[in-house]
Structure formats: C-alpha cells, structure tokens
C-alpha cells in the first residue's frame, strides 16, 4: 500500500524537526497547536490546511517546498 501525501508530508515534518533538534511539544507550542494535533499531523492522520502548513514552515524556519521533497 502506498503512502498518502499526508503521510509523506508528516514524515518530512518529523525529519526536519529532528534534524533541528526540536521536540514535538516545542514545535506544537511554536505553532500554537496542541501536542496531540501535531502528533496526528506528523502521522499523516489529518489533511492539513495550507495555513497549518504555513505555521509549521514558519516555526521550522523552512521554505514550503521543503515539506514536499520526498
């Protein structure tokens, strides 16, 4: 079974977050999200809005395209 785009983006968020030594809780706080929502986003269990992805990119200090390099 192939991965959904939500799962691929979620994995990229985890990869980038861990490369930057940011905890899931810390990223959630920077985005003003609950940790449980960040967990669902990283697992690909939610279809994130563009504004949600914008908040994540801003918090990680990355360009949007970085989320889609898989």
TrEMBL record:
Domain HTH cro/C1-type: 13-67
The keyword GTP-binding is assigned to this record: no
Keywords noted in UniProt: DNA-binding
Segments passing through the bilayer: none
Classification via InterPro entries: Cro/C1-type_HTH (IPR001387), Lambda_DNA-bd_dom_sf (IPR010982), TransReg_Diox_bact_type (IPR050807)
Pfam families according to UniProt: HTH_26 (PF13443)
SMART domains noted in UniProt: HTH_XRE
DNA-binding among keywords: yes
PANTHER family: HTH-TYPE TRANSCRIPTIONAL REGULATOR, METHYLPHOSPHONATE SYNTHASE
Protein name, as recorded: HTH cro/C1-type domain-containing protein
């Amino acid at each position: 079974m192939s991965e959904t785009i939500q799962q691929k983006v979620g994995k990229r968020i985890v990869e980038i977050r861990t490369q930057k030594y940011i905890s899931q809780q810390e990223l959630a706080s920077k985005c003003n999200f609950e940790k449980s929502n960040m967990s669902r986003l990283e697992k690909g269990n939610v279809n994130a809005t563009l504004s949600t992805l914008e908040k994540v990119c801003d918090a990680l200090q990355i360009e949007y395209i970085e989320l889609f390099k898989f």
